[in-house]
Amino acid sequence: MRTLYLRPGLADSLPRECCVVNVSPLLKELILHACRIGSLRRALAWQSHLIDVIIDQLQTIKAAPLQLSLPEDPRAVRIANAVLANPSDPRRLGQLARTSGASGRTIERLFVVETGTTFGKWRQQVRLMEAMRLLGGGANVTEAAFEAGYCSSSAFIAAFRKMLGSSPTQYFRDPAAGYGPRIQRRR
Questions:
Q1: Would you say residue 184 lies in a domain?
Q2: Within the chain, which residues score under 70 in pLDDT?
Q3: Rg (CA), the chain
Q4: Residue 3 belongs to some domain of the structure
Q5: Quick count: other Cβ atoms within 10 Å of Cβ 142?
Q6: pLDDT, tens digit, for every residue of 52-87?
Q7: Which CB contacts under 8 angstroms, 24+ apart, belong to 103-111?
Q8: H or E segment and range at residue 21
Q9: In contact, 19 and 66? CB cutoff 8 Å
Q10: Domain-terminating residue out of 5, 30, 64
Q11: Which of 30, 72, 122, 134 is the most interior residue, by most CB within 10 Å?
Q12: Is residue 102 part of a domain?
């Protein structure tokens, strides 16, 4: 992982919140080059040009839907932790809710308020991220799909294509595929 720090005002059009992006091969090499140089200065023409190209490249990339907000209410946290521990758990929300001390409807409302999405969509995101982790570790598409809780590999491929715009095979073959999923607390 590499980190770039930009002075305020250099890239006002970039997102202000943390996000995951797919990095193109060009941007990857530009970032690696900038990190080898160290602190870049606008006063040097060639470094100023490098800064401009990096910022232009950053402005063209799109955020990947690979962030997962976590709830904060203890009842919803119990459900979230159970799903994160076992994404392939087939139990419905009502069954999971019994272990949390709240009704399924309460848990659903908490997920919408605290994560910005329904429990069903949140769980689907967890399963997608787990399948991606498995694929990144060398599993084939069918193994990853079933291990992550999908009922078929075609259901997984359809969900993957809907979220990321390509098949799992294409995504992991493409060097611009990014650095993988991230989990963050929503503020």
A1: no
A2: 1, 18-20, 63-66, 174-187
A3: 20
A4: no
A5: 14
A6: 999 999 888 876 666 788 999 999 999 999 999 999
A7: 106/75, 107/75, 107/76, 107/79, 110/71, 110/73, 110/75, 110/76, 111/71, 111/76
A8: strand 20-21
A9: no
A10: 64
A11: 122
A12: yes
